[in-house]
Design goal:
The complex is a heterodimer of chains A (175) and B (148). Chain A is mostly helical. Helix content of chain A is 72%, strand content 0%. Chain A has a domain at 51-167. Chain A has helices at residues 6-37, 48-76, 87-98, 105-125, 129-145, 153-167. In chain A, helix 2 (48-76) packs antiparallel against helix 3, helix 2 (48-76) packs across helix 6 and helix 4 (105-125) crosses helix 6. Chain B has 148 residues and is mainly α. The chains are: A mainly alpha (175), B mainly alpha (148).
Chain lengths: 175, 148
C-alpha cells in the first residue's frame, strides 16, 4: 500500500476529530436535557403531579411574560408595526387555545387583552382607526370575562396608553 | 490503512467525542440553568401583575378568585424552589385578600389571610408587622401604584 504524506494523515485525523467533537457535543446536549427533565424534586415538597403542574405553569408564565412584553413593545414602535396583527399577539392567541395549565387561562386572557388594547392605541397613532376598533372589540369580551367593571373604549384606550408608556422612552431620554 | 493510522484516527475520534460531550453537556447545562432561573424569577411577577390588575379593576368575586389562584400557584412554586420575589408577591396577595375580606365584613377570614401574609413576610427575612400596619402598608402601596 503506498504511504500517504503526513499532510493527508493529519487532515483526515483533523476531520475525524471535528466530526467526533460535533457528535459528542450533540450527545452531551441531549444528556443535559434528559438530566434536566428527569431531575428529582426536593424531598417532601410536591407530589409528582403537582411538580409537573408547576413545571408547566412556569414555562407558560415565562412565555406569557416574553410575548406580552414584546407585543407591547412592537405596538408602541411604528417601525415594528407593519403587519395588521402583530405576530406576538397571534402567539398569545395560540397559547390561549393550547395552554396546558387550566388555572392560567385568565392570565393569558389578561395579557392578550392588554396586547389588543396596546395594539389599538398603536393603530390609532398610525391613523388606522378601523384596525384600532377591531382590536378594541377583541379586547372587550376578554375584559368582561375577567370581571372588569369598566371596559369601555375610553377605559381601554387609557389602559393601552399606560401599557405603551411602560416601554417608551420618557421625554428627554436617549433612545 | 496502517496500524499507526488506525491508532491516530481512533485517538482523534475518542478525543473529539470526549471533548464535545463534555463541552456540549456543560454548555446545555448552563443554558438550562439560566432558563430555569429566568422562569422561576419572572413567574411571580406575571402572576403579581395579573393579581394586581384584577384587584384594581375587577369586581370583588373575580378579584378574590384571581388572588386565591395566584396564592395557590405561588405557594407551590415556593415549595419547589424558594425565592424572595415569590415570597414578596405572596405577602401582597394575602394582604389584598385580607382587604377584600374586610370589605365583605369577614373579620375571621381577613385575620387568616393576614396570618399567612405574616408567615411569608417572616420567611423572606422581614420584621413582624401588626395587622393594621400590614393593611395600611398595602393600601398605601395600591394608592401609589394607581397614582403612578
Amino acid at each position: 500500500m503506498p504511504r500517504k504524506p503526513i499532510g493527508v494523515w493529519s487532515s483526515i485525523a483533523l476531520v475525524i476529530l471535528c466530526l467526533g467533537f460535533w457528535a459528542g457535543w450533540k450527545v452531551g446536549e441531549r444528556i443535559a436535557v434528559y438530566a434536566y427533565k428527569h431531575r428529582t424534586p426536593p424531598p417532601d415538597s410536591l407530589s409528582p403531579s403537582e411538580a409537573a403542574q408547576i413545571d408547566s405553569a412556569l414555562s407558560e408564565l415565562y412565555q406569557i411574560q416574553i410575548f406580552a412584553a414584546y407585543s407591547e413593545i412592537s405596538s408602541g414602535d411604528s417601525r415594528l408595526r407593519k403587519q395588521p396583527s402583530p405576530k406576538t399577539i397571534r402567539v398569545l392567541e395560540k397559547l390561549r387555545k393550547t395552554g396546558k395549565v387550566q388555572e392560567l387561562q385568565p392570565v393569558v386572557d389578561l395579557n392578550l387583552a392588554y396586547g389588543y388594547a396596546a395594539a389599538a392605541v398603536g393603530m390609532e397613532e398610525d391613523g388606522n382607526t378601523q384596525a384600532a376598533s377591531t382590536y378594541l372589540r377583541s379586547a372587550q369580551p376578554l375584559f368582561q370575562s375577567l370581571g372588569w367593571k369598566d371596559y369601555s373604549d375610553e377605559a381601554l384606550r387609557s389602559l393601552g396608553e399606560e401599557e405603551l408608556a411602560t416601554w417608551r422612552p420618557r421625554p428627554g431620554e436617549a433612545r | 490503512m496502517t496500524i499507526a493510522a488506525k491508532i491516530i484516527y481512533l485517538t482523534a475520534l475518542t478525543m473529539g467525542l470526549a471533548a464535545g460531550a463534555f463541552l456540549g453537556f456543560r454548555n446545555a447545562h448552563e443554558v438550562l440553568g439560566a432558563l430555569e432561573e429566568a422562569k422561576v424569577s419572572t413567574a411571580p411577577l406575571t402572576l403579581g401583575k395579573y393579581g394586581a390588575a384584577e384587584y384594581r379593576y375587577a369586581d370583588s368575586a373575580h378579584a378574590q378568585t384571581a388572588l386565591k389562584m395566584c396564592a395557590d400557584l405561588l405557594e407551590k412554586m415556593q415549595k419547589r424552589a424558594p425565592e424572595k420575589t415569590g415570597m414578596a408577591e405572596l405577602v401582597v396577595v394575602y394582604r389584598r385578600l385580607a382587604l377584600l375580606a374586610d370589605a365583605s365584613n369577614d373579620a375571621a377570614e381577613s385575620q387568616a389571610y393576614l396570618a399567612k401574609a405574616r408567615y411569608w413576610l417572616k420567611a423572606s427575612g422581614e420584621r413582624d408587622f401588626t395587622d393594621e400596619e400590614m393593611k395600611e402598608g398595602q393600601r398605601a402601596l395600591d394608592k401609589r401604584t394607581t397614582e403612578f
